[in-house]
Request: fold
Amino acid sequence: MAEQSEGQERSHFTRRLRSRRNESVASSHGSSLSASRRTGLLTPEQSTLTESQATEPDHGDAQMPQPNDGGPSIAKPFPFMELPAELRILVYYMALHRDEPILLHAQRATPEKSEEDDVPDIVNEARSQATMRSGRTRELPHYMPLLPRPAFAPPAPEDAIVPAILRLNQQTYKEARQVLYGDNVFTLRLSSGVHTLSTLHQRSRSLIKHVILTIPSHHDILDGFADLVRLGLRYLWGLKTFKIILQASLPDDGRIPSGATSVYANAFHILRWLPKGCRVILEGNVSEVVRQVVTEEGRLQSVLDDTGYQKRQHQMPERH
Reply:
C-alpha cells in the first residue's frame, strides 16, 4: 500500500511538472509570436488629435532641408558685376565682337521704343541668306531672309554673338553697348536699312563706325540708295567708313561722253549727307563716272568747314 501511494504521488508530481513546462512553452511561444507580429506591418489603431496637434505648424522659422551629399546641389549665381571693369569688358568682347561683318536687319513691327530695348537680333553675315531668327514681340529687330531659302545653305557659324547680354541690367547695357555697336562692322540692306536704323536709339546709332552696303543692280541705285543715306546714314554721327559694293555694271557704262555723268552717277551726290569725316570705299563693278562723283564728294568734305558742309547738304548738286 505504501509503495502504491508513493507511486501515485510521483505520477501526480510528474503531471504537474509537465503541465508547468507546457504553460512555460506556450507563454514563450506566444510572446515570440507577438514580437514577430510587431516586426511586420502594424495594425492601424484608432487615434485622436489633441487641439495643439490639430493646428497648422508654423514654418516661419523652419529651415529648408539641406541637400544630401550625394544629391543634386543648387549652384549660386556668379557675382558678375563684382568683377573688375577690365574683365567685364573682356567678357563683352567675347560675347559681342566678331571679326566678320554682321547683318543688321529689322522687320517692320515697331511699337513704342525705349533706349534699353534697342538690342537688335543680329546675325553674322555668313548666315544671312540661310536662316530665320525671331526677336521679341516688341520693336526688337530680327532677321528674315528676303529670298527663298536655297537648296544648299551654308552652315550657321559656331561662334555667334550673344546680344541678349545687354538685357541683363542697366549697367551691363551701358558698358556692353559700346562694344556691340562701336567695334563691329555692320551690313545693311537697301530694303530695310532705313527702318533698321530707326529702331535704334540715337545713342546707339551714334556708336556705329563701319557700314557695308551691297547694291545688287542699277535699279537699286535710284530706288533706295538715296533714302538710306539721307534718312538713315546721316544719323550715324560716329560713322568712319562706308563701303559700297556694286554687283552690276551701269547700263550706260562706256557710252557716256567725256566730262558728262549719267543719272546713276548723279545719284551718288547724295553722299553729301554722310557725316563729316566719313570715308567712302567703292568695290565691285565701279564705273569711272561714279568714282569721279564719289571722289569729288570726298574732296569737298575735307575742304569745307562744318558750317559750309551743312549748307551744301541742302543744296541740289549741279547735274551735267
